[in-house]
């Protein structure tokens, strides 16, 4: 069994080895650009860790891991167009650096590249791998659609929000783990358990993100604390606050989310104060813990030794503990 | 062996049977809309005809045919955004009817749907089918990129143009036929021959389109004759005319393609006159015939009876003879 560091080295090497044609230049340069912007490579790492969990050499799963990473980057390129985002990992997004048309088409060809990597998987697993990948990809698209629709709605429930983040974020973690499990020759039951583990842990990660965006230590947080509040982003915290707030708290929320012009610091403090009065941070933490505990209970049921589970559990802990 | 009409009925039924989730509504409604706009379903029909050509029941290839049709419709949705096209088959394009974001994301999920259909192919052929499909899809994206780049360039050669239409239009015909051949258990040699046949016939079709756009009978042509001239579209005819023109003919082309304001009829007549002086129609026809003859010579080499080849040859003839 290889260490997580060894697997990360295998991944880095495989990403270096991804080659794309030189021409047409404007089709393939954006792909190299976005893939080399970096990132933590969590998703492909999950594929490899899952394969090793079931006692199979991670190298067997390297093409599936690349498929997941290229697909993930494809979603970033297209989501950034739709979200009108100027920056990604501190650099210009593809549609900003080139053009929207280039970002659409380079994204499309990345989806094809993801599928090309997938087709290199051992043919014994191919059908299962494709079905899992396609279901995952479809879920991610549905999640993005719901996320965009929620921006236009003011009646989004917590249940709907959880379903949206499940689709937009969590199914890809579940899908990555399940691909690794299939290639690792896991039983159907174990493959399903690790998928469910991934989905629940993914929801917990997103809730953690929602909390950090408001309550992170500004010195450790990589971006502006309160960014979600400033943008009226319908996070778990804002939705829960609207659900719980009455009288002056409700009025404060309604006012601050309706102002077109405002002092940024003043808005963040005012909304945060409503959150504090309503104990929103703890409610969010309780919900996060619920998904985390559900994930861990599912993980426990997987029929391999605790020793084999150590690396994946360590990574999960590290990801949950991040404060930046 | 089934008649082309019977195969068309199978196709219509299969398209009716394509089902998509109800929610999120704005993700899936555009897919139903674009697929039900109609069209001649030539590409999926080529899949089925090719399977039957090699003595296998077309029903074996129905999922591959659906994958090709859904993929083709995906390219229409994204190309229409990039080309800023308001109409498709006389109806509003997806980005006009909904929004650009909806068109991007519905297109993305159509690509996934195409892959889902592909994954239903008999696993014996799956690896080959995926490789052919992915190579084809990548080529189509490269063709669209080149087409967009050519709009910004004034030094496009005939050779580059032929390569662009090969990628944008012809590889999908070749790919459709090859998919049918793989599922029809054709030899590798025959699968390659029918692919090459498709590519060459595709180039001939596009050259035919270029000619018709200028020289079609206005009463039979479905759109405005001269549309390519009005839009300065770099077709085979315009590129060849620029290549051949000297003195006053060159001057006329340069002037008419540079005017921002002009009388439409006057421009069409003036450019057409240059074409006529330079015998461009016949040069284009000669080039078209070259690709057509190359296609037919390749088709002849395929190792099945002339009787089995009859339906595919008839369809090819009908498509080459269209004047609308």
UniProtKB/TrEMBL annotation, chains A, B:
Similarity section: Belongs to the FPP/GGPP synthase family.
Pfam families xrefs: polyprenyl_synt
Top-rank lineage group of the source organism: Bacteria
Cofactor requirement: Mg(2+)
Lipid biosynthesis in keyword set: no
Keyword field: Magnesium, Metal-binding, Transferase
InterPro entries per the UniProt record, alphabetical: Isoprenoid_synthase_dom_sf, Polyprenyl_synt, Polyprenyl_synt_CS
Protein's UniProt name: Polyprenyl synthetase family protein
